[in-house]
Amino acid sequence: MGLKLYNTLTRRLEDFIPRSDVVGIYTCGLTVQGPPHVGHIRAALVRDILMRWLSHLGHKVKALENFTDIDDKIIEKQKEYKQDWRIISQKNIETYLRACDELNITRADVYPRASQHIEEIISLVQRLIDKGYAYEKKGDVYFRVRKFPDYGRFSKKSIDELMAGARIEPTESKDDPLDFTLWKAAKPGEPYWLSPWGKGRPGWHIECSAMSMHYLGETFDIHTGGEDLIFPHHENEIAQSVAATGKEFVRFWLHNGWVTLTGEKMSKSTGHYSPIKDVLERYSSNVIRLFMLKTHYRKQLEYADERLHEARSAYATIKTYLDKHGDVPQISEPLMRDTFTEAMNDDLNTSRALAVLYELITEGNECKDDRRAKEIAASVKYYYTLLGFIEEVEEVVEPYKAVVQILSDVKKRLREEKRDSVLESITSIDDFELLKDIKNIYPLIIRLLLRIRDELRKEKDYEFADYIRERLSESGIFVDDSTKGSTYRREVR
RNA sequence: GGCGGUAUAGCCAAGUAGCAAGGCGGCGGUCUGCAAAACCGCUAUUCGCCGGUGCAAAUCCGGCUGCCGCCUCCA
């Protein structure tokens, strides 16, 4: 059984058969007038998982993710902040890409920007005019919706119903309220490009058709984006593309469910959203990834601290298991391959795929046979990596300061209480030449504290020992005692 | 109003006809000076409500209700 994907075009699960050797993917990315939020990341993560899985299945992939960096909203922001639109968009793009990198989201091959493809946009608009699908009015160019018989089919909307809500803005001079803008004349003071219709800028929608065709050809395999883009954005993309080329535009349309906050959809325009920057400060990349993959991509996903905390605990289980096994060999034939593959092939069912991971972990923990245990651990790591989780890099600077303070407090107390025997036991530890290297000194100090604590425990001074444990725990360092001695672990963020 | 989605344990969440995956939490246990961690075990006779078709339904059909969304900018 091969990969099946839910296609919005047909509203059913279909076998994914690529058109050629290279699978073309276009993701509708951001309109960059505001900071990226969790919803945008979900869309990016869907592309990431799709790309990872397609590559795993042996496909070559060429992926684009666009930035619509010039539109009405960004011009508004320019006026509001008295800052050039290019600076605003650049800032938001950088924030977004940094967040994606931190989240280990596979980079698209190209991140085209509308403002950098004006030439392709103009020629596409011209093509539509030449074919009679578009017309110019006072420097604006509109797409004649009624000329395109299939309009509304994709989003299952009827033209008559759309008419009821349609309006012509006072500034527009459309022939028909349903018509949408392909090219918009610039008002004085607004950014513009020269075109056959005068100074102006692209309308929203046309950039995606122009750029996807430019990089992927007039027909390509997969188009992804948030569910909220089905109408009007993708409906319009299809109309203008098919009208221009007379060819099929996209084979598969994948739409992810939105992210909600307190039960309502996150949205840039209403200000009801959590910026990804804030989220990354609070939770590690792996935790955020797990949080998102736990729910199937087409379902609505509630962003709430409670959910993230749950994901953090769930992630700790995986991390603890992998840490316990340390180095595991790289393998190419993991256990439970069929179950995992079946889940992923079923419209990228990451929820089920993760269940495979957890089943393996439980089995690994029960397993007494060393060889088998190694094999299980290797399989867990294999799937973990395949799903885009990463090895965590520990931050050392902040906790370093904290442990130095704790050590100093503990030494002070030892001196005050004249605990000479304990003090003596540690003076022999003269590893301070290692002070030069912060990465080495950090665990060293913790081990030193654990040794002091060990002495105290031998002397049955549990109150003092517990004090050290408590202080460390406040800094996110948890001490675990076992018959083999004490170990510590860092809190999962 | 039209269209689309969704309703499964305390919470989250898979599951489209054959005795309900997985996670979080909770409870019990092993270990321990205590704790924590880790591990083990238990935790839905039942899938929003009502009716129907099947030997058999969370899964199909009809009706009802709740929630979310699109129809205007949105990932």
TrEMBL record:
GO cellular component: cytoplasm
Cofactor(s) named in the record: Zn(2+)
Motif 'HIGH' region: chain residues: 30-40
Uppermost EC category: ligase
Cofactor note (record): Binds 1 zinc ion per subunit.
Residue span(s) of domain Cysteinyl-tRNA synthetase class Ia DALR: 339-397
Motif 'KMSKS' region positions after renumbering to this chain: 265-269
Compartments it resides in: Cytoplasm
Catalytic activity reported: tRNA(Cys) + L-cysteine + ATP = L-cysteinyl-tRNA(Cys) + AMP + diphosphate
GO biological process: cysteinyl-tRNA aminoacylation
CDD domains on file: CysRS_core
Residues that, per the record, bind Zn(2+): 28, 208, 233, 237
Matches recorded under Gene3D superfamilies: Cysteine-tRNA ligase, C-terminal anti-codon recognition domain, HUPs
Any one GO molecular function term: cysteine-tRNA ligase activity
Keyword Transmembrane part of the UniProt annotation: no
Short name of any one Pfam family annotated for the protein: tRNA-synt_1e
Sites where the protein binds ATP: 268
Keyword Zinc-finger: no
EC number: 6.1.1.16
Swiss-Prot/TrEMBL keywords: Aminoacyl-tRNA synthetase, ATP-binding, Cytoplasm, Ligase, Metal-binding, Nucleotide-binding, Protein biosynthesis, Zinc
Family under the similarity heading: Belongs to the class-I aminoacyl-tRNA synthetase family.
Subunit structure: Monomer.
Record protein name field: Cysteine--tRNA ligase
Lineage: Bacteria, Bacteria division TA06
